[in-house]
Design a protein that fits this description.
With 317 residues, the protein is of the alpha/beta class. The chain has 2 domains: 234 residues, Spore Coat Polysaccharide Biosynthesis Protein SpsA, Chain A (Alpha-Beta Complex), CATH 3.90.550.10; 69 residues. 50% of the residues lie in helices and 15% in strands. The protein has an 8-stranded mixed sheet with strand order 7-5-6-4-1-2-3-8, sandwiched between helices. Helix 5 runs parallel beside helix 8.
């Protein structure tokens, strides 16, 4: 959205055990904000919000020290660890009403901070949501690239409206932040919510870099959990799949019954203890999987109907 004066940009950085990376990250982000201010595309009052997601190391102390040395660095500490999506939402809601646009970026600097400049330019040209899309992932391992591609393909197959190779690196206008605040669900999958807001969008591509310090906070188990959460938060297709699988098995059972009946009437004994046991185990496994899928949806309903706060803020600086 165009503004008559350079826009105030808030850069939101979710942090979990990032005491090693934060000093480097904040320095780079401040350099970007200063350059944008010098070029006149962003206000000199732009600032950074670091959100400590219940870290077990000295992340909050690091944020406090950075704030003491530069008041443009602000901090929000959650009362306990809630997960990346909740920390991200907390930062965005902290910025809502206090900026013209907010950019979210992870603390590891794998997402190129220089892309923020192009995002702000796109915002100044009228875009209200600007997606950061990875142009290449050469610094990732083969396994990481393969699982990431599978993750996006699975989302698409399940009917999710998401941007391919986009994580949570994006710019949102103040109006987009207000609309995001209206989404009150507890089961958060922000990259699924943003496309539903429906404002004018743009895309900025960038090359993914290596982590500046520390270790990845998204091992395979967490990636799988995140994928399941995203799919079950926005799509009922897994439940429909259960129905069609059951229908297919019913048709197969009818065919088998006709075969057995025909063999009996023709005087042939149908031997099949092994196939019978395999069928029992197969059907039992499918039933348990189906119950598990239904259980995930029931669990989400249980969480939503309690209407508990999504996070609690312990401290602000």
């Amino acid at each position: 959205m165009k503004t008559p004066t350079p826009p105030v940009i808030a850069i939101v950085v979710p942090c979990f055990n990032e005491e090693q990376a934060l000093p480097v990250t904040v320095r780079r982000l401040l350099e970007v904000t200063e350059r944008m201010a010098a070029e006149g595309i962003a206000s000199a009052e732009s600032y950074i919000i670091c959100v400590d997601d219940g870290s077990r190391d000295n992340t909050w102390l690091t944020i406090a020290n950075l704030h003491a040395s530069d008041p443009r660095v602000r901090g929000v500490a959650l009362a306990h660890n809630r997960g990346h999506q909740y920390a991200l939402l907390a930062g965005l809601m902290e910025a809502e009403g206090k900026c013209d646009a907010a950019v979210s970026i992870d603390a590891d600097l794998q997402d190129d901070p220089e892309a923020i400049v192009e995002m702000v330019r796109a915002f100044n040209s009228g875009a209200e949501i600007v997606y950061g899309v990875r142009r290449s992932r050469e610094t990732d391992t083969w396994f990481k690239r393969t699982t990431a591609r599978s993750f996006y393909k699975l989302q698409k197959a399940m009917g999710l409206d998401t941007v391919y190779d986009h994580a949570d690196y994006r710019l949102m206008s103040e109006r987009a932040l207000r609309l995001l605040a209206d989404y009150g669900e507890s089961n958060l999958f922000i990259r699924g919510i943003i496309p539903q807001i429906g404002l004018s969008t743009a895309i900025v591509t960038y090359d993914r870099h290596r982590r500046v310090a520390g270790e990845s906070k998204y091992p395979l188990a967490k990636m799988i959990s995140f994928s399941v959460d995203g799919i079950t938060s926005f799509s009922a297709r897994p439940l429909k799949m259960i129905f069609f699988i059951g229908l297919g098995l019913l048709l197969a059972d009818i065919g088998m019954a006709l075969y057995v009946l025909g063999s009996y009437l023709s005087g042939h004994t149908v031997a099949g203890w092994t196939s019978l046991m395999l069928s029992v185990w197969f059907l039992g496994s499918l039933i348990l999987i189906a119950l598990g899928i239904v259980g995930v949806y029931v669990g989400k309903i249980f969480t939503e109907v309690k209407h508990r706060p999504r996070y609690a803020v312990r401290e602000r600086i």
